[in-house]
Amino acid sequence: MKKIDTLIKILYNIYLLLKNHQDYWSLSHVPFPDDEQMTRQEVKDYLKISESTYKRKVKDGTLKPIKMPGGDRFYKRELLAAFQESYRKGRL
């Protein structure tokens, strides 16, 4: 009976973790086959922002990079809101 109780506790903890991170599991993070992946520098060039602005946007959550061993990566379709903001401010 002790093994079953331990297993139930583990499954419950996994459930709580998933429940608290629902926004991560939303469809916006699911890449589509034709979705272009961009590097950090490509994103800065695409949005016409500086390094300090990039860091600020990552820190405040406006940009949400995918952390990879070779550096941050982004899917182009996830940058739509940031692109629209850059356009609104007259950078593009």
From TrEMBL:
Domain Helix-turn-helix: 38-86
Transmembrane segments: none
Protein name (record): Helix-turn-helix domain-containing protein
